[in-house]
Amino acid sequence: MKTGVKSLSDIVPAKITRISTTIDELDWQYGYTGDKWGLPLGKLSLWSGVRGIGKSRTAICVARRINEDHHSVFYNSGELPPEQFAAEKLSGYKSNNFYLANLIHLSDLVSTIISLKPNVAFIDSVNTIIEYKGGRGAQFIVDGDKSNKGLRVAAEIANCHIVLLSQLNADGSVKGGSSLPHYVDIEARLNWYDDITIGSVFMLIIDKNRYGMSSTKSVWRHENTGAICQSERRLEDKIWNEQHCKVKREKEELGVVVERRGILGKWMRFVDGILR
């Protein structure tokens, strides 16, 4: 049998593990494995959008939420040094496992991710990576070649999820190379909600998702505290409801039982005191 060819009976299915963003709507968009929703570890996402729509702001919001949920995060800003990024984008926030860098060489990014092994990494943006801008292409950035490791290898070795941010051209193509969406696992676009709300309300649309549903949309609003998700489209999803409403009902029922026990206990103690 040819090298690389396997019989189906000899293949052990690889289970996808996930990490929650703590934002229910975004977790729902990314999909689920078993009863765990969120970013698939070892995989790559691409978030693209026109300049000023809020790619970085949304990414920083998600990164901070993940970090506050006790997971490690690596955020690479190709445009700002760590000191300036921390002051302007994360003012007042401190964490021992939120890592910042200002790397522009692919080899440095790959080795840093493999060394740090963060749960989630954000590359802001892919357009600042020298090898990408220099014309080596999207496939090289993602997969590398025989002598160079790409970001996919870094994600697999570190068992993390990597989010690539990229600008869009006027025609809607990814700036620097329209082939990038074909090489990542999940492709998301940030679009303004409508002409009236430009500057405040936008949509995050997942066009391609190898590990979940495609064509899902969520609505977000820019506020002083960052980008805030406004929609609850996940509540229309049968699987989400089956998994989450059951848990909600069980918690509510448990609360009622505990409350009744508390009232009953007080009443019994009151009656006991009278009888004595």
Which descriptors apply to this entry?
alpha/beta, globular, two-stranded antiparallel ribbon, 276 residues, nine-stranded mixed β-sheet, 9 helices, single chain
Describe the structure.
The protein is an alpha/beta fold and 276 residues long. The protein has nine helices and 13 strands. The mean pLDDT is 88.
Order of helices and strands: EHEEEEHEHEHEHHHEHEEEEH
Name the overall outline: globular
Query: Structural class, from secondary structure content?
Result: alpha/beta
Biggest β-sheet strands, sense, barrel? 9 strands, mixed
Q: What's the short version?
A:
The protein has 276 residues and is of the alpha/beta class.
What is the fold's blueprint, element by element?
Blueprint: E1 18-19, H1 24-30, E2 32-33, E3 36-37, E4 39-40, E5 44-49, H2 55-68, E6 73-77, H3 82-89, E7 98-101, H4 106-116, E8 120-124, H5 130-133, H6 138-143, H7 151-158, E9 161-167, H8 180-183, E10 186-192, E11 201-209, E12 216-223, E13 226-229, H9 238-275
Parallel strand pairs: 5-9, 5-10, 6-7, 6-8, 8-9
Antiparallel strand pairs: 1-4, 2-3, 10-11, 11-12, 12-13
